[in-house]
Sequence to fold (157 residues):
Amino acid sequence: METKKIIAFILMMTISPFALAAGEHAGHDSMMGMSMGGHWMAPAAEAARANPVKSSADSIQQGGKLYQQYCASCHGGNADGQGMAGMMLNPKPANLRVMAGQHPDGDFAYKIREGRGPMPAWKGILKDDQVWNLVNFIQALNQPPAETQQGHAGHMH
Fold:
């Protein structure tokens, strides 16, 4: 398993400079995938796409397994953007805990599928339902654990 991560890291570091150079021509990012503040956003039509996979405990669990396999080396085991393989990347991997609940499902799905710069495109590797399970996992990072949600709704003092 560690060998796969090392190979993926080497491959990513080898390909990343070319991907970065290809995507940085004048004006490209002003309307195509960037907001005014420089934060990477999916095109509006992609961001508006509805998630066809219901967010359930099973989907979130499947997404968590996929996250550990494909994303944790850069985004961190805690999804805080502090993964070992991501330390040398520019731009740095996103802190998904901060982004969870702040972006629509379609935005995350687009970014996972298409990638950009050092963020690889997973569309040829992950099936569509796997991408949506990952989205459900990421969005769940913003929610308190289920045991704190149940039985406490009416107990505000």
In short: Residues 2-23 form the longest helix (22 residues).
